[in-house]
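Sharing a chain and its predicted structure for anyone who wants a worked example. Both blocks are below, sequence first, tokens second.
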Amino acid sequence: MDPQEFVETVREEAATPLSRLGSSKALYADTEGEMDDDAVLQAAADRAHFAAERFDAWADEESGDASELFADAASTERDHAEAAADERGEYEPGEPPAVVAHLETVDGTVERLAAFVGWALAAGNNADQVVGYFVGQASPRTASTFRSFGDDYDEYVDRASDLLAAEADDPEAAVAAATAAIEADYEDYFETLEELGVNPKPVC
């Protein structure tokens, strides 16, 4: 399975969810309508904090290159959570995001690597929205902090898809595992916006 082809297929299969998760409404859903600096930073820190916990667990359960990737990701996500907390001034973990709850149900090295790709693609879109928010708030330093996260997510996708190229015997199953992670994030986005009385479909 060609790594680039795999990622492109995932992007195509999940084009609508990824597009909507890359809209300003995604950040509105993450903060449950509280679009202020504290709420945005709390949501960003929660995404990173709980992802780090999950990837730590995977690193312990896996071996070889997959374990190393998940351990590196856990360390980086802890750095992301700390960066968001530093911008906020304090941080107490909230509720785990739905996508992390989904990742807890994923078993198998190939399935985890694929789900990791899906998570990273959605996380990159989320980081872009946080950057856009702080640019709009005339906070270039904070925007720059989150802009650097995007490079990490790109690296995650590259490393995981390279490992999948060597390990996945069933490309369709790998694509399904990746898109399922994106769908978990999207379903939460959709349901949260509906609860807030906002139409989740149009992209802003």
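Comments welcome. The chain is about 80% helix and 0% strand.
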